[in-house]
Amino acid sequence: MAEQTTALTRDQAQDILTSMTKSESLLLHARTVELVMRALARHLGEDEELFGLTGLLHDADYEAYPEQHPKIIVQKLTDMGETTIAHAIAGHYTKWNVPRNSTLDKAIVAADELTGFIYAAALIRPTKIEGMKVKSVTKKLKTKSFAASVDRDEVDKGAELLGWERNELIAFIIKVLQEYKEELGLTA
Q1: Quick one: which of 43, 47, 162 has its CA closest to 114?
Q2: Is the domain defined by 10-184 classed in CATH 2.20.28?
Q3: Cβ–Cβ under 8 Å, residues 47 and 6
Q4: pTM of this prediction?
Q5: Tell me, what's the pLDDT at 5?
């Protein structure tokens, strides 16, 4: 297990998130990405708390400061001395051209867009996440009008950054969402 590299607690992170985010859907997205990031950390032998808090806070300023996202949350975390989380959040979209040096920097890219997409795809299924197959997600990814705001290139880049096949990452995320289906409202 990797050494803990953050002094930030889960409660402090939750307070930061809810101070800037009121939308239930965005709060749920933050929690969903947190769960996927924690699972990735366990799988990769990384710091689960560090990964989880990065997932929880990656879009914390998006609702309150959409034109400045992610600069506000990055600055807040930097001011708190949480430079590792701040850097990962600063680069959680590859088109921002922030170098992704660590596994954390790569994992947040891999988790963000694809987790949101799989969640959206599960919501429209009669059985929600139960029984969801990789094939149905890849088919939905080809439908540009479905979850149109999800950047498909970013989905592929996220998997590549981790050195995973896209289908491997999809299967991993589906499994995590299935594990937390009650909490996430993904039960039929």
Answers
A1: 162
A2: no
A3: yes
A4: 0.96
A5: 76
